[in-house]
Design a protein that fits this description.
Strand content: 15-25%
Structural class: alpha/beta
Mean pLDDT: 91
Largest sheet: 9 strands, mixed
Distance between the termini: 86 Å
Oligomer: single chain
Shape: globular
Radius of gyration: 28 Å
Helix content: 25-40%
Number of strands: 30
């Protein structure tokens, strides 16, 4: 139809929107074909002052588009730097469901039906409230969220006048203006809340947080949808088996229409916490995501990643050759810590003397110095949180956490709540600065350093009766011999008593001149068990799990890659290799076609994976076996792992596992033995399952031992 002079200054908008309305398919061409000239008369330099008519051109393009796209009566207008759509009211009746308690019904239009779902069973109560509702449009609002403007329910409900929209989602911010929820991304079948912790006026490769967006799913803390959609899917409860029922519901909704993220439906979370759905429900299982989005997230450009800064899209740039990147990374890290982590023998002696001057007494207060974490289910942090919860519940001991993080402490609390909600609700949480003033926790009976960097902070603390290490790996081996390994070893001479995860770590710590007790780790048998394992048929391929982490040297990725490549050449389709444990693309390491990488799985999803594989191979070059052999054994999978004198107390070759050297041919030998001899695989798997059931299946027993060791120090 030619150019429209009413859209001068915004002809590109008009062209793109007309193409979209024509029904034409739009494809991405992965080449730079167009450059925006930067001249004084261009908006790219002069802004709208260079072309004041461009603003009206943009609005005119949208005035033409919106009615044709399904929004009759919608009017675009500028609100500051952003365009806001004034929606025409929807004729349907609206019902608002308040999830939880807190929001006063007086904040809602009196003509709008309001129901409350605040029982113990979140999803069942929500479905029951929707069943009672009389509205044709359902609006859900978390009781912990406060609407920014009185027309909030219209911003959620009115865009549904367009039949192509299945659901509308709002934007949740904290009191500092940081984004908590604005839809989610999915990458490597992991949920990443979009733009979390970014400022409300974020602008980056993904665009602006003040823009309208399509998303594949959204948390149900502030959403609207038609009642018919809920009925079509059988309610939220139909998705409970997959974990996050709200995300499962919206993934299904996305198959019927758009999930429309509205930046002007804004809500504040005074607590800084995300929705009750995220803080109380299990994580969405990776299998459910994979089924819904087999080709990946359609609203996340394949040239972007959201792993490095979780939920924040960044363009994937060509990587530096590995050997150069490793050298540069080590030098920078070593230089930083050599400057930041300083100590003298005088500091150590003063710390020991200060603790020694305090009398014995009852155990009332424990402080944990922990690194930042995003997932509370990983082995090390999970053990710390589990021990803290046991001390709180069974012994009434106050629990405090000093966290080396830049986040709001309430964000840390929300992450902790995913695994231990009562601990998160009652614990004291403060941020731990680098070399700045230490936060005050009052009188502390026992304080634990849990990573070598936190030991330097603990050394400076006063008013602590007993300083300890909670040692879960031999951390000098995380680095090449040099500055960093030397700094780690120095912390083992700070005079802290060590509570060690496994006997070999306790022996190693004593060899450094320290005192130590140990405990035996356990597994959560609700997650890691062999119940429901599929019986392998004769012609099924042998499914091998590999703990693949290319950027973590202690997991020997290079040797595993060589061995698995040889195995795949030997067995071809008879061998199905599945990686997990890190987000990376096999093709980037010359392993395209070798196997699938599932990335970082949810806690429950990890157990499901282990029950689906015949065997798992794990390489560990430090002095702890890692939790994976325990979890694989408990799940009925045979274990192949590297020889290590420090893990021989658990891993017995030809009995409960097969051991191999960290070399290609021996890896091939060990795995081939299991593939070619199903009876050997079954015997080793059964023996491993028995070992875990006998010695490593009772976390209460483990925690009792830890508590007894702690009490002996201070009482």
């Amino acid at each position: 139809g030619g150019w429209d002079s009413e859209t001068d200054g915004a002809q590109d908008w008009d062209l793109f929107l007309r193409v979209v309305l024509s029904g034409a398919r739009v494809r991405h061409v992965p080449y730079v074909l167009y450059h925006w000239r930067q001249v004084p008369t261009s908006v790219s330099i002069g802004g709208f002052s260079a072309k004041p008519y461009a603003m009206e051109g943009q609005l005119n393009a949208l005035r033409k588009y919106l009615p044709e796209a399904g929004w009759p009566g919608a009017l675009p207008e500028f609100e500051g730097d952003y365009i806001r759509i004034k929606w025409s009211p929807i004729e349907s009746r609206i019902s608002v469901i308040i999830v939880g308690t807190g929001l006063k019904p007086s904040t809602i239009d009196p003509d709008i039906e309001v129901l409350v779902a605040d029982g113990r069973d979140l999803i069942a109560d929500l479905d029951a409230a929707i069943e009672r509702a009389r509205g044709d449009v359902i609006v859900i609002l978390d009781a912990g969220f406060v609407p920014r403007s009185p027309d909030w329910f219209g911003e959620l409900a009115f865009p549904l006048i367009n039949p192509a929209v299945s659901m509308v989602a709002g934007k949740i911010i904290d009191q500092r203006g940081g984004i908590i929820d604005y839809g989610v991304f999915f990458q490597n079948w992991i949920v990443r809340p979009a733009l979390r912790h970014m400022p409300e006026r974020y602008y980056g490769p993904y665009g602006g947080a003040g823009w309208y967006h399509n998303v594949s799913a959204a948390a149900a803390g502030a959403v609207a949808f038609r009642r018919t959609l809920w009925a079509q899917f059988g309610g939220f409860g139909s998705f409970s088996a997959s974990g996050r029922a709200d995300l499962g519901f919206s993934l299904a909704a996305a198959r019927t229409g758009r999930i429309f993220a509205n930046p002007f439906a804004v809500f504040t979370s005074p607590s800084g916490k995300p929705s009750v759905f995220e803080t109380t429900l299990p994580e969405l299982q990776w299998a459910a995501i994979r089924t819904a989005l087999p080709g990946g997230d359609p609203y996340l450009n394949p040239n972007m990643e959201v792993e490095r800064v979780p939920g924040v899209p960044n363009i994937v740039l060509p990587s530096v050759p590995t050997e150069h990147a490793a050298a540069q990374g080590y030098a920078a890290e070593a230089g930083y810590f050599a400057h930041a982590m300083d100590v003298s023998r005088v500091d150590v002696e003063a710390s020991i003397a200060a603790c020694g001057s305090m009398p014995d007494g009852p155990l009332r207060h424990v402080l944990w110095l922990i690194p930042d974490f995003h997932v509370p289910f990983f082995g090390g942090i999970h053990t710390i949180l589990r021990t803290a919860e046991y001390l709180r519940v069974h012994h009434g001991v106050k629990q405090s956490f000093a966290v080396t993080a830049d986040d709001n402490p309430e964000i840390i609390r929300a992450r902790m709540a995913k695994a231990f909600p009562e601990l998160a609700a009652r614990a004291e949480i403060k941020l731990l600065p680098g070399n700045g003033p230490m936060p005050s926790f009052g009188r502390v009976d026992v304080a634990f350093a849990t990573l070598w960097t936190t030991a330097f902070s603990l050394l400076r603390m006063r008013d602590v009766r007993q300083k300890c290490y909670f040692l879960q790996d031999w951390e000098p081996l995380f680095y090449p011999a040099g500055t960093l390994s030397g700094l780690v070893e120095a912390t083992y001479r700070f005079g802290f008593h060590a509570i060690c995860n496994t006997p070999s770590l306790a022996e190693s710590y004593r060899a450094m001149g320290g005192t130590a007790d140990h405990f035996l780790p356990a597994v959560d048998t609700n997650i890691f068990h062999a119940r429901g394992r599929a019986v392998r048929r004769k012609d099924d391929p042998f499914v091998l799990f590999c703990y693949g982490r290319p950027t973590t040297p202690r997991n020997c990725f290079e040797a595993l890659a060589e061995g698995l490549s040889s195995l795949k050449r030997n067995y071809k389709d008879r061998l199905d290799i599945v990686f997990a444990g890190g987000t990376w693309d096999p093709a980037d390491f010359g392993l395209g076609g070798l196997g699938r990488n599932l990335g970082l799985l949810s806690y429950a999803g990890t157990g499901q994976l282990y029950r689906a594989v015949d065997a798992g191979i794990v390489a560990m070059a430090t002095r702890h076996p890692s939790y994976l052999p325990f979890e694989l054994m408990a799940s009925g999978a045979a274990v192949v792992t590297t020889r290590n004198i420090y893990t021989s107390w658990l891993l017995k070759d030809q009995e409960n596992c097969l051991l191999c050297e960290t070399a290609r041919s021996d890896i091939v030998r060990a795995v081939s033995t299991l593939i070619d001899n199903p009876d050997i695989r079954d015997r080793i798997a059964a023996n491993g399952e028995q070992v875990v059931a006998r010695d490593h299946s009772d976390w209460d027993r483990t925690c009792r031992q830890i508590v007894a060791n702690i009490r002996a120090l201070v009482e």
